[in-house]
Every structure is written in C-alpha cells, then in structure tokens.
Amino acid sequence: MKSQLSYKLPEILLESNEAKMLPPEAQKKMQCWIRSRHLICSGNFFVFESVDYSAVERFGESVAALGGTVISVDPVGKIWMGDHRQVLLYRSKASLHTPHHQLKQYWIKYGNFRTRFDDQA
User: Fold this and answer.
1) I need a labelling partner for 7 at 20 to 30 A (CA). Which of 16, 71, 75, 88 fits?
2) For residues 52 and 7, what is the distance between their CA atoms, to the nearest angstrom?
3) How far apart are CA 90 and CA 21, in angstroms?
4) What is the CATH number of the domain that holds 97?
5) Does a structural domain hold residue 98?
6) What's this model's pTM, rounded to 2 decimal places?
C-alpha cells in the first residue's frame, strides 16, 4: 500500500499548450469581421469594435498571427442592448506592417467606412 506522503502530483505547466493561431485562420476571422462590420480600415490602421472583450483578445491574436501589432484597446462608451441593458463597447486599433496587405484589398471590396456600432454610439 502506498503512503499518501509519497504520492506526487502531476506538474502543472504555467505556459499554455495551445498552438498559436495560424495565418490562414487569422485571415479568415478578419475577413468575417470585415463582412460583419466589426472591422474597418482607417488609413494604415485596422479598427475593431465589439461589446465582447474576448473577441477583442481574439482580434489581437489574429493581428499577431499576421505579423502586426495592436496599438491600443479602449472602452469607447456604453451602448444600449434592448430597453434595459447597457454594455461597454471596446475599440481596438492595430497596424499590419505590410503596406499592401490582402486584407486591405478585401476591405475595399467587401468592407464599409463605418462599424456596425457607429449609429448607436
């Protein structure tokens, strides 16, 4: 019979074992956000707006997978969801280092100059 004192707990890794997002997956996510008017292009920057902070984090992961950097994440204000509920709107600004990235061409074809929250904010 084993003593409880000799029992070793499995080691817990502090780093996540998840693989980083691959560039094709990141590009598909960003194209989806362009079509849904969460992501717009403003000059040389991409501006992402969402009420879900985890979506803002996924946007940051996507930008990093494509070789860019997130410049800022700011709470813009509160917007109404229905009659009785207000939620925070987050705006994230990012830069992709390549000047003529395919996403900018995709935004020209399928995107918009205003996000879906511009009418409400």
Assistant:
1) 16
2) 43
3) 22
4) 3.10.28.10
5) yes
6) 0.79
